[in-house]
Predict the structure.
Amino acid sequence: MEITPQILEEFKERMHISHWGEDDNLSRLLSFSIVDLQQKCGAFDIDTNEQAKELVFERTRYAYNDALEYFNDNFLSQITALGILLMPEDDSDATV
C-alpha cells in the first residue's frame, strides 16, 4: 500500500515528529496498519474514511511505540464498528 505524502505528514503532525529521518519507517508502519485493518474490517480508502484513518493512525502509534500487542484489546469496539460500517449491504432480505 502506497502512503501519500499528505497521510504521512498528517501522522507526523499528530505524533509531533518534525524530522524526516524516519519517513520511510513511518510509511512502512502506516502501510502495515492499513493492510492489517483492511484484513480485519474490509476495504476502505484512508483518504476519505476518517474513522478508518483514525484507527490506522492509532495502530501505527502503537507500532511506533513498540506496544502493538495492546492495540486490538484497547480499540476492539472501534475495530468492530469500522467492520460493521464497511460490511456490504445484504439485499437478500429486501421485500419486492
User: Anything to note?
Assistant: The first helix runs from residue 5 to 15. The chain is about 60% helix and 0% strand.
